[in-house]
């Protein structure tokens, strides 16, 4: 079977997946979700005209003449007086500007004498004043549907009085780690056994990217056991990821079992290295990514493919992963048939994204993840890549 070009895998995801249902949630629970509405400010900001400094609320037209102090306006405690000619109110940052005042004389230019003040220099109308609505008016659109909610957006919406949001439900994720040889770390290894890297990688990556704890199950290389586990996973999750058992070995049951469970295959085998055996299909809007067993292949399938699948399930407008451009710092071999996805160290120190090759790039090797920052995308071609060439990269 011909290998699917990597770019076409992204088209398959876009074509086969739709955003999960919309739910209304309290603002702070929306962190990390994707907006299903374009929230608007409920109030103007600032909501009232106020002081930007600690000082004195005055009438600018009084110039440098001395003024009588008639009250205090602290943040949250308006003075409740009218400032007439020759009068001033002590005011603190965020305090409501009293009626009649049109400027604030900051403390540094004011001298106090008993119940009055003198200005060392005149002020102009509006000095040190934050005007009502100068930032935005009630009804201003603050963010757009399809945008992911960040801590900064949570803060901006809270300040504008928005307390609930329509967001797409977060995808529930199930992970099935297959392989008779795979043992969880912490147990003594028997002959032919290896420690499980994919379970910890998948679990940590989803948690790190804000999806919470996936359900992780371990499945032996047994067709019936896989069918039972995959069936349960498809019932409970929106994205099911399997590791191992997806190549052409005698015990690679994932494609056949997925087919039997009614998952519609979109593609099997992508022109990428590592990660060629990747299998993808959909059942009732739920995605199944059958990832290979080699851990570096799992990493590539997570960063490049699971990211895209999750973006579509969440209704994100800027579909991830978003690739940046960087410069190779040394020459590198190309693969004639498959795009290479290479673990690299990123150096942004001098303002240019410089990509440094890490050793040990084979698909069964993972030790370079201790210092890798990004995956670089080196398209399939005959001639080697030269130092100084520009290539695309994504953070891991
Ligand atoms: P498979 O795709 O099942 O044929 O596995 C390919 C290679 O990846 C084999 O060498 C497996 O032993 C190895 N492998 C499979 N699962 C894991 C895992 N969870 N952690 C580390 N290596 C694995
Ligand atoms: Mg296996």
Describe this structure in words.
It catalyses: adenylyl-molybdopterin + molybdate = Mo-molybdopterin + AMP + H(+). Belongs to the MoeA family. GO terms for molecular function: metal ion binding; molybdopterin molybdotransferase activity. The protein is an alpha/beta fold and 396 residues long. The chain has four domains: 6-20 and 170-314, Molybdenum Cofactor Biosythetic Enzyme, Chain A (3-Layer(aba) Sandwich); 22-45 and 135-168, Molybdopterin biosynthesis moea protein, domain 2 (Alpha-Beta Complex); 50-130, Molybdopterin biosynthesis moeA protein, domain 3, CATH 2.170.190; 324-395, Beta Barrel (Beta-clip). The chain has six helices and 24 strands. It has helices spanning 6-16, 151-159, 198-208, 223-236, 254-260, 295-314, and strands at residues 22-26, 50-51, 55-58, 67-73, 87-91, 103-106, 110-113, 116-119, 129-130, 164-168, 173-178, 182-183, 194-195, 215-219, 239-243, 264-268, 272-273, 279-283, 286-291, 324-328, 339-347, 354-357, 374-378, 390-395. Strand 21 (339-347) and strand 22 form a beta hairpin. It is elongated and about 95 Å long. Adenosine monophosphate binds at residues 177, 179, 181-182, 194, 196-199, 243-245, 247, 249, 292-295, 364.
């Amino acid at each position: 079977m011909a290998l699917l070009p990597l770019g076409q895998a992204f088209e398959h995801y876009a074509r086969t997946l739709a955003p999960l249902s919309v739910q209304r949630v309290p603002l702070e629970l929306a962190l990390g979700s994707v907006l299903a509405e374009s929230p608007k400010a409920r109030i103007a900001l600032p909501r009232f005209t106020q002081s930007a400094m600690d000082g004195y609320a005055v009438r600018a037209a009084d110039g440098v003449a001395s003024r009588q102090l008639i009250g205090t306006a602290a943040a949250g405690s308006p003075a409740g007086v009218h400032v007439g000619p020759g009068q001033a109110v002590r005011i603190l940052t965020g305090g409501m500007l009293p009626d009649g005042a049109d400027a604030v004389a900051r403390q540094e230019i004011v001298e106090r004498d008993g119940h009055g003040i003198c200005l060392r220099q005149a002020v102009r109308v509006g000095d040190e004043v934050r005007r009502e609505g100068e930032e935005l008016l009630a009804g201003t659109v603050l963010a757009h549907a399809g945008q992911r909610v960040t801590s900064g957006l949570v803060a901006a919406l809270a300040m504008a009085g928005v307390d609930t949001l329509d967001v797409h439900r977060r995808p529930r994720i199930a992970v099935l780690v297959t392989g008779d040889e795979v043992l969880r770390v912490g147990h003594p290894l028997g002959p032919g056994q290896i420690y499980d890297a994919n379970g910890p990688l998948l679990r940590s990556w989803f948690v790190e990217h804000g999806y919470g704890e996936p359900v992780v199950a371990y499945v032996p290389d047994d067709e019936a056991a896989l069918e039972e586990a995959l069936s349960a996973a498809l019932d409970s999750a929106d994205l099911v990821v399997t590791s191992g058992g997806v190549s052409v070995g005698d015990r690679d049951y994932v494609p056949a079992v997925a087919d039997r469970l009614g998952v519609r295959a979109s593609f099997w085998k992508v022109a990428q290295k590592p990660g060629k055996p990747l299998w993808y299909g959909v059942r009732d809007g739920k995605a199944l990514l059958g990832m290979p067993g080699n851990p570096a292949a799992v990493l590539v399938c997570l960063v490049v493919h699971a990211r895209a699948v999750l973006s579509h399930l969440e209704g994100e407008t800027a579909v991830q992963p978003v690739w940046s451009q960087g410069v190779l710092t040394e020459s590198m071999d190309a693969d004639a048939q498959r795009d290479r996805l290479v673990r690299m160290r990123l150096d942004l120190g001098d303002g240019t994204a410089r990509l440094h090759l890490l050793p040990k790039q084979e698909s069964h090797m993972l030790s370079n993840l201790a210092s890798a920052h990004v995956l670089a995308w080196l398209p399939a071609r005959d001639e080697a890549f030269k130092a100084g060439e520009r290539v695309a990269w994504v953070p891991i």
